[in-house]
Amino acid sequence: MKIAINYIVFAAALTFAVASCKQDDYFVGGDLHNPNVPHNTYDFLKNNDRGLFDTLLMLVDAAGMQEEINQSGITFFAPTDYSIKNYVAARTAIEQNIDPFRMWTVDSIMKYELPQFADSLRMYIIPEPITYEDLNLNGEGILYQTLNNDYVAVTYEETNDPALGYNPNSSHFPRIMYYNYLKIPSGTTPDLSPGSSLSFIRTRVQTSGVISTTGRVNVLENGHQLFFFRQNL
């Protein structure tokens, strides 16, 4: 399910993004690449030369979710290991409000929270392919339903920020993809009537447009914190 929306109120803006210059390539680390990779989604993440997804895939394996991220035709907004690290740090802070000696680790997730991790990871899976052409709608956001029936708006926005690839000598503005998680109670339908105010948690995409043999992959920026407790969003 996807719905075009014109009015978006974003709750938070995060940093560290990469813009795409050509719609037939994907962009990562300052270089353009052929968007088609000879791996399924899981193996594309596994073969990352920086090891950005090692912890993520360890949890995916433990939760038995390999087939879910390898489903045909999905779009996966993949959080990096930094997103998990950011969650662990935030959860440790919560635990230390109860006991200053408590720690929360990846082992804690594996021991106590694998069902919650699986539910959370489905918030990053859109059960249909998302292309640049789908999003090139004069700044309008497209609202998609995730695999666990939450909602995200995906936007593809022009930027005039030199740090994000803008060159004032060029007549073209680079575009950046954003993953915007809609903050509404789980299981409810958003109010899309005129004048309604929608609140999102906004995350830039640092690598976009990867086409694996099973689906599409967009990698979220490292400053993102893995979604876990919806009641705290």
Q: Mean pLDDT, rounded to whole units?
A: 83
CATH architecture: Roll
Number of helices: 7
How many domain regions?
A: 1
Shape: globular
The biggest sheet, with number of strands, parallel, antiparallel or mixed sense and barrel status, is: 9 strands, mixed
Supply the CATH class: Mainly Beta
Low-confidence stretches: 7-31
In terms of structural class, how would the helical and strand content be classed? alpha+beta
Rg to the nearest angstrom? 18 Å
- Could you give the order of the helices and strands? EEEEHHHEHHHEHEEEEE
How many β-strand stretches? 11
Strand content: 25-35%
- The H-level CATH homologous superfamily, spelled out, is FAS1 domain
CATH topology: FAS1 domain
Secondary structure: helix percent:
10-25%
Distance between the termini: 23 Å
Question: What does this molecule look like?
Answer:
The chain contains 7 helices and 11 strands. The protein is α+β, with helices and mostly antiparallel strands. It is globular and about 55 Å long. The chain has one domain (2-232): Roll (FAS1 domain). The strands form 2 sheets. Strands 1, 2, 5, 6, 7, 8, 9, 10 and 11 form a 9-stranded mixed beta sheet that branches. It has a two-stranded antiparallel sheet with strand order 3-4. The model is unreliable at 7-31 (pLDDT under 50).
